[in-house]
Write a structure and sequence with these properties.
With 43 residues, the chain is an all-alpha fold. It has helices spanning 2-11, 16-42.
Length: 43
């Protein structure tokens, strides 16, 4: 999933929509990491 974000970011560096899409993807990955940590601490 992370590689997909990087690939989309690298493929069209000057395309603002692709950049925004990649930024959203990175944020989603970070959110999933935090959720995983939170769930991990709970158990």
């Amino acid at each position: 999933m992370y590689q997909l974000c990087v690939a989309s970011l690298m493929s069209v560096p000057n395309h603002i929509d692709a950049f925004i899409e990649s930024a959203n993807c990175f944020l989603m990955v970070e959110s999933l990491k935090e959720v995983a940590l939170f769930v991990g601490q709970d158990n």
